[in-house]
Amino acid sequence: MPSHRNKRSAHALRPLLAAMAASGFISSQLALADPFYVSSLADSGSGSLRQAILDANASGSNLPHSITFTTAGTITLTSGELDITQRMVITGPNANNPSQITISGGGNSRVFNIGPGLGVSGDYGNYDNFGARLENLVITNGNGKAVSTDPAPGRGGCIASESSLMLINSVVTGCTAADMGGGIYVANNFSDIYDPGDFADALIYGGLSLLQSTVTGNTATCQNRIEAGGPYACVGGGASAGLLVSKYSTVSNNAVITGNTAFADSLTQSGGGAFAGISLVVDSTISGNSLSGNADIDGDFWRTGGGLGGYFSLIYGSTINGNTISGNTGTSTNNVIGGGGLWSPIVSMVQSTVSGNSVPPTPRAPASSCRHSTRVAIRNTVA
Known about the structure:
Blueprint: H1 4-22, E1 35-38, H2 49-58, E2 65-69, E3 73-76, E4 82-84, E5 88-91, E6 101-104, E7 112-114, E8 132-135, E9 138-140, E10 159-161, E11 165-168, E12 171-173, E13 176-178, E14 184-186, E15 207-211, E16 214-216, E17 219-227, E18 232-235, E19 239-247, E20 250-252, E21 255-263, E22 267-270, E23 274-282, E24 285-287, E25 290-297, E26 300-304, E27 308-316, E28 319-321, E29 324-325, E30 334-338, E31 342-343, E32 346-350, E33 353-355, E34 371-372, E35 375-379
Parallel strand pairs: 1-2, 2-5, 3-6, 4-7, 5-8, 6-9, 7-10, 8-11, 9-12, 10-14, 11-15, 12-16, 13-17, 14-19, 15-19, 16-20, 17-21, 18-22, 19-23, 20-24, 21-25, 22-26, 23-27, 24-28, 25-29, 26-30, 27-31, 27-32, 28-33, 31-34, 32-35
């Protein structure tokens, strides 16, 4: 007879399958409101992306707003992040070359901040259930640490979202944040899928969908800090989300770094590439990501998932390789260090490869450890 926990695990598949539809796994036409056009590469003013977003935010419609470009080049923000408060699709001009539109935070601000409540509550299987969809864009050089007043201070180097976020054929690179989501941080959405229990805490970070996209070269840092309380988490060098759906995408060369830090309570450092409560990874690559740095912890210390960290992972036709965990843990008395490539209490892998990942040798995690799981289902997989 299946246990209560197994029933809950089976229940987890339903939103994951629905997320497949919501992420373009199931083809669907999307109706949009009349578009706003971007004709200027300036930070603000007539024809700018900032003005188009302001106009779309102010325009009422039952359909997602659409912003398209009649120009190409780099937009460098000089007056702060771009706030999205209505459901919106922002589409670059060239699906074959997303770099034709590059949006840069200039190292001084985050690029996008997407407000709460913009998805279709409870309608997880619909393709239009998102707060924002960003397509054919390069988003770069954002600095979430420069933001201290919004609901996610310091988090999400290039993008912070309180609604479901979808990236299609886009690149997020060269961004930095404090604590969570060096490139992307998604908060709050999907927090009501489960009753309190096994996976509830895993879902507080929200829903992120990546389709034919790349998240690379981003960093989440917990550095030069002394904290008296806790617990604390420093997770998701590339992305942090409660629900991550990835297809035909790459998460690579991202990092979570601790250094010159002292924590009086517990610290979790996880997901050098991505951290998600629930992950569905299909035909994707997670490689070259890392967890590193030194930390002095009086309480428990978890350093897990050099490539992908989380609680429930379904991986199909994908590769997890070349991810690393390194560094010292100071005086921590209860270390859990493991899963150089993948850390997940429940994982299912089909036709996938986990190889060449590394962790430092400890009594709980030998140096050859590539994954950790309390339940593993593997089929036609090299691990």
